[in-house]
Every structure is written in structure tokens, then in C-alpha cells.
Amino acid sequence: MQFKKHVLSNGLRVLTIPMPSLESVTAMVLVGAGSRYETDRNNGVSHFLEHMAFKGTQKRPSALEISSLIDGIGGEFNAFTGKETTGYYIKSSSNHLELSLDVISDMLQNSLFKKEEINKEKGVIIEEINLYEDTPARKIGDVYERLLYGDSPMGWDIAGRKEVIGKLTRDDFISYMESLYSADNMVVIVAGGIDSGKVLKLVEKHFGRMKSFDIKRYLKVVEKQSKPEVFVKQKNTEQVHIAIGFRTAPIRSEDRFPLSVLAAVLGGGMSSRLFHEVREKRGLAYYVRTSSEHYQDCGTLVSTAGVDPKRVDEAVSVILNEYHKISNITHSASSGQISNKELTKSKEFLKGHFVLELEDSRAVAGYYGIQEILEDKIDSPQEQIAKIEKVRLDDVLSAAKKYFVNSSINLAVIGNFPDRQRFEKLLKL
């Protein structure tokens, strides 16, 4: 799978990824904007703006007009917001690509931000926040990052706070866009059954007039943790949700791929160590998984699980013990030793899921676009697979020893517990 990159005269980057076997195409715009660029006064505006993009433009004044247009070609459209990027996309048959590019460019350049639409959407956003609050299996990730990054943009929920959402105005959206939605802070990605030359002409036509300007910079994360930390979000739940992890490395670190393999060893499937020890062997949880997450200047490896409130101490201890067994093994025989078979299986797990994901043009567009926004260079899928394959057992063990240290343990909990003292006693490798 080959891609081509072109930069327009206004600084806008264009990536085209032909997928000749497809009759469909995904047109996506990624912006180097997200919740870490917000302030206490506008927390949630990145995500709210993504909602407002579909609410009407000068050319298409209503949300119904935009949705009817996309539905009328059998397409699908959506948007997503993270801490460092925001994306907008339309997926359709290849012969409707120009319409898709026209609609997205229109939304990014000519959104109306009508007061009545903003006020209506506030209710939608608040209900979305309520949904997350009532879905602790999803919410635990936000609680964990609040523990890691504190009262800072990186520690705030992407959806924002209700009291702030209720005060946002049209001027807030315009001001935010004028601080980050610069042409040279955007990437247009088109993946699917396309001709790259024709795509480039269409992108020039619809995005070529966008302006570039100096953008707002994010506050860098300062990590000073010196002892294990616990954060408990008190909530009456039938199941306690926990997240246990460590601070690790940013997205461009050489440790990124060894950490990914390590996460797969621990919680990357139904044959992983934690799934076997926590669920299969002890029946402590329905779900348990481990992921390695990376931002531009920080990262974390974290395991999450939903467990019986009466056995939460046991679950925490079992997960920590699995961390301990890997981080304290030597080259001599050990009960925690990762075998060559286990290493190979974990790498194949990562490669297999990666290949399956890239069968969809939307995922392909996101894969290339995220790299262009956040990384120094773009790896092809083959290069990414080669980096996973290159990881040796020594690399995985070195990463475990480097990052699985007692002073860097973090435990977030959602459950009906009045304080954190009972958990602090458990946090020791």
C-alpha cells in the first residue's frame, strides 16, 4: 500500500492512498487540534466544535440539508476528537468523492454556528457526558488520565465540563478555530479507489483558498511522580472499574514498539497473561485488557478491568504481581520468563489486528493522517509490521525494567469507596 504526499501553496498537506480493489473512498481532514489546546474557560470546545460542523453552512444552512445530501449518496459521515487531533470524514462510493470534499471543506470554512443550534447542541453534549458517566468501563480511562496529568488540559475530559459547555458561545468557536485551524496545521487524506492526480486537483479546488497562520502551542506535560498514586472516583456501581499503569514514553520514542509488545503479552487477547490470571483462573473480571498509549510528549501502559467489589483488592494484587514477574526476571529461568513462543504470539497478535484494521479505507486514512500530524515520518504498513517484528525479548524486558518501577505506579478506581487508603497499601511491586 503506497501513499503520495503533496503540499499545497497554502501549506495544506495532502495524502493520497490508492486502494485499487475498492469501489469506495474515504475523504478525511485531520487537524492538529484537540482538548490539550484548551483552557479552563473553554474546556470541551474541541469536541463541541466537531458537533457543530454538521449543523449548517452558508451553502447548506441546516443539519438536515447536510445529512440528507450524504444519505442521498449512500455515504456515511462522522467526526472524532482526541487530545491532540480532531478528524472529519465522509466515506462514499468513489464517484461521489468531489461531493465529499466539497461538504467537508464547506464545513471547515463556512460553518454558521447559529446561536439556536449551539443552544440545542449543548443539551446533546451534556447527555453525551452523562452517558460517559454512566458507562464506567469507558469512563475509567478518563479517570486514569486525570490521575496522571492532574488539573491540566491533558487531565481534563475531552467532552468537557457541563458548567463550561453551558457557557460556550459562537465567539468561542470562531476564536478556537482562528487559533488552530490553519491550513498548514491540517492534512487532507483520501484513501480508496482513487486516482491520485485527480484527487489532488479536487483538493486544490476545494481547500486551496484556506489561510495559514501562527497557531497556538500546547503546554508540555511535566512529570514529577515520586511515589505510587491513587485516585478514587466515588460512585455507586455494581462493578468496580480499575486502571493500573505506569508512565512511559512519547510517541516518537524507541521504546514504543517494545511497550506495545509488552502490553500484548500482558493483556492483548484471551490468551494473554492477565486474561488468564484475572478472568480464567480466578473469575475476578469479565473484561481485562492492557494498552500502550502515546502522546507527543508522554505515554502510559495501563491495564483496565471491571471486578467484583468484594474482590477488588485481590484483582489489584494479581495485576501488580504480573507486572512484577516480568519486570524482575533475569535471563535465568524464572516463573515470569517470557518464552520465545509467547513473544512470537504477542507480535503476531499485534500484526494480525493491524492488518485486519487496514482493510477499511477509513482506518487507512486515519493511520496515515495521524502519523503525518504527530510523528516525524510516515511508515507504510509494511514498515510498521517490520518494526513490530524487529522487537526482541531483550527489548521487552528492558522496557519492563525501565518503566515498571514502584514510584511510577498509578491506580484509578471507580466504585463506592470513601477514600483511597485501602488501595495505597496495595501499591507495591
Descriptive notes:
- With 429 residues, the chain is an alpha+beta fold.
- It folds into two domains: 204 residues, Metalloenzyme, LuxS/M16 peptidase-like (Cytochrome Bc1 Complex, Chain A, domain 1, 2-Layer Sandwich); 196 residues, Metalloenzyme, LuxS/M16 peptidase-like (Cytochrome Bc1 Complex, Chain A, domain 1), CATH 3.30.830.
- The protein is built from 16 helices and eleven strands.
- Strands 1-2-6-3-5-4 form a six-stranded mixed beta sheet, sandwiched between helices.
- A hairpin with a 4-residue loop joins strand 9 and strand 10.
- Helix 12 packs antiparallel against helix 14.
- The protein is globular, with a radius of gyration of 23 Å.
- 42% of the residues are buried.
- The mean pLDDT is 96.
